[in-house]
Amino acid sequence: MANYSIKDLEHLSGIKAHTLRIWEQRYGLINPKRTDTNIRYYDQDDLKLVLNVSLLKDNGFKISKIAEMSKKELQEAVVEVSDKTTSFVDQIYGLTLAMIDLDEQRFEKIISSSTLKVGFERTMLNIIYPFLSKIGIMWLTDAVNPAQEHFITNLIRQKVIVAIDGQYETFDEKAKKYMLFLPEGELHELGLLFANYLIRAKGNKVIYLGQNMPFDNLSMVYDTYQPDYLFTILTNNSRAFDPKEYLANLSELFPNTEILVSGSQIIGEDLGLPDNVIEVANPNRILEFISAHQSESVSK
Fold this sequence. Notes:
Layout: H1 6-13, H2 17-27, E1 33-34, E2 40-41, H3 44-58, H4 63-68, H5 71-84, H6 88-101, H7 104-118, H8 120-140, H9 146-165, E3 177-180, H10 190-201, E4 205-208, H11 218-225, E5 229-233, H12 243-253, E6 258-262, E7 277-279, H13 283-292, H14 296-299
């Protein structure tokens, strides 16, 4: 079971450390443990409690009333709020708890309910993508273990693949063509699957090459498919992988094609990208690019 500092709880719940300490002292809401060297820490049950308290508080519950609740009453209140809420923030909290508890039923309920209300695209942009960003923070603080991360990302992956399969395939000859791939060593393809869904949803064509694509094979696919745009994601922080060099080689190989690139090795980094390489920081930026470069026949 993971251990957390009070700063970890603040980052994951959005509740200030100062506020958490007041709740500790005034209501005995959470009780820190101590290491053999007398350093305060919190466990996974404390994290779940703080996330639940944050959800209830955001939905109008007074902290004094929450502190009086039994564990069962707290859980019942959280379930009731989760069933009624349309807040994206609340649903992200719900997914976080589903991941921590390995609760597939709660995951299904949140995603299915949101998809029914606002559609899969908005669910993806406003809930799933921010949630995955939150998982990234949790990785940095060791707040999520590999089993929990694999559990939730595989559930999300299944949803995205089903959504892609359910899309109408365009046969418009003027539709723009995108070639999507991850470099060798890149194995996390959820972001690429998101892009696949978004591009197809706007009536464009996609050839999806997936993860771990050898650089030397790209030319063959390009020559056969003749895409208008390339899209890739770089997150590999291995010392053996140089993102600047990779993009320079990609730009040189395809000098007349715009290359869209995202990922933690690119976003916010001053790499001096080649002229035909375009940084897209998130799915909304991808959508902006797609809309701006949509073929006239598809956009009508």
